[in-house]
Sequence to fold (482 residues):
Amino acid sequence: MRKLIAFVSLAAATVTAACEGLGQAMTAHTDVVARAAGHELTVDHVAAIMRLNPRLPAQPEVVEAIANFWIDYVLLATAVAEDSSLRSVDLTPVVQPEIDQAVLFKLRDKVIQVDTSFTDEELRALYEKEQPGLQIRARHILLRLPPDATPAQRDSVMALARDLQQRAAAGADFAALATEYSQDPGSARQGGDLGFFVRGQMVPAFEEAAFALGVGEVSDVVETPFGLHIIKVEERQLPDFEQIKEGFRVQAKGTVTLEAEEAYVRNLTEPLGIKVEEDAYEVARELARRPDTKLSGRAASRALVSYKGGEFNAGEFRQEVIRRFDASRRAALAQLADEQMAEFLTTLTRFEILLAEARRLGVELEPAERDSIMDNAVRRLTALATATGLRTIEPKEGESMGQAINRKVRELLEGIATGERNALPLGPVSYSLREQYGAVVFERSFPAVVAAVQATRPAQAPPALPPAQPQGQPQQDASGSR
Fold:
C-alpha cells in the first residue's frame, strides 16, 4: 500500500494548459496571445519578453510557456488583490491528493496488524540470509559482442569466452588473462579489477552472477548488453552485525509491514478482475498530452478500466493527471507503451478501490486534520505569492490595480527571461485559479510572435542553452565505466 500511495501521490510542479477555447477564439483579436481575469497578453508583449534573451528559442513552445506563466501570475495577483489571505481560492483540488494519502495511511493502520518484534537471534538469522550492506570486489573479462553480430561471429566470441572461463576456473592467473583479453578499457589495465561495489550498481545479469560467487570462485560465461563476461570475486565485505543491528531491526520491521500491506492490496483487488479496456491506451495518452481537454458527459464516463462492481473512467483519469502530475511527467506518461500504460492505469484503479474500501469501513479524516492540510496549502500558496513578489503590489500614482498587476507580472516575466528571476510554477493550483477567474490561450497567435522575434534576430541566432540535467550519481555499468 505504501508503494501504491507513493506512486500516485507525486506532487505537481508546473502546468501547461488552456487550449484555445472555441467560443472565445472566435471573438479574439489576432494580436492577443492570452486572456485572464479581464487582462490581455499581446503578441508585441510576448515578443518583447523573448527579445530580452537572444538564446531563448523563437518557437511556439516557448510562446505557450510564457503565456501560461503569464496567466498563472496574473490570476495569482488578482486573487491576492481580492483577498490577501488567499482563503477565497478553492484549493480543494490541490489538497485532495494529500487528503487521500492521509486516509489510506489511516486505512493501513486499521486493517494491517503485524508482529514486528524480533529477538536478537531471529534478527541475526535474517541478517545472515539477506546480508544487507554486502559489498564485493571482483574482476572480470569482457568480450564485446556487436548487436548485429552474425551467427558465426557470435559462435567465435562465445568459443573464446568459454575457453577463457575454463582456464580461469582451472587456476590460471585471472588478472593476466583480463589484461591480455578483456575489451573493457576501464578495467583491463588493472587486470579486470572493478573495485568494490554493492547491489544495484551493476546490470542485473552481472550482479546476480557476481553476488552468487564465493571468494576465489569464477563464474560461468555471463551475457549482458555489454557483451560476454567471466567474473571472479576477490573479496566479500559484510558489516559487523552488532554495529548495524538496531538499524537493521528498523529495516526488517519496515519490510515485514510492507509485505503485509502488499498482501492486503493484492487480496482486496485481485478478486475484482481488474481489466484495462483495449481502447484505453490512446485515450489516456491524449489526456496526458492535453489534460485541459473539456470532456462531455459521455466522454468523461468512458471506461478505461473495468472491474467487478465498478470502473475507472476518462473523467477520473483526467482529474488524476491534473492533480498529481507536472508537465514533464505528463509528457513521459503520453509516451508510455501499452504494457506500461496498462500497469499505470491498473495502479490508479487499485488506488481508487482502496479509497472506496476506506469509505466502506468509515475511515475518514477528522475536521481538524482536513483543516490542517488546507491551512498548509494556503501557507504554501502565500509563500509562493510572496516569492514571486505578487503579494505586495502597490499601484503607482494614476495607476489602477489592474494596471499595477500588468506591470508587476511583466517585470516578473522579463526577469525570468533574462535569468534574473526564477520561474516559479503554481502547479495544480493553476487549474483552480483558471476555473475561478477564467483564462484562455490563443494558439493561432503563436506564429505571429515567432515571426516578430525572428524578424529582429540575425540569420544565425546563437544556439539555445541546453536544458539543465537532473543531478544524480551516475550508475556504473557492468563494464566498470561511469
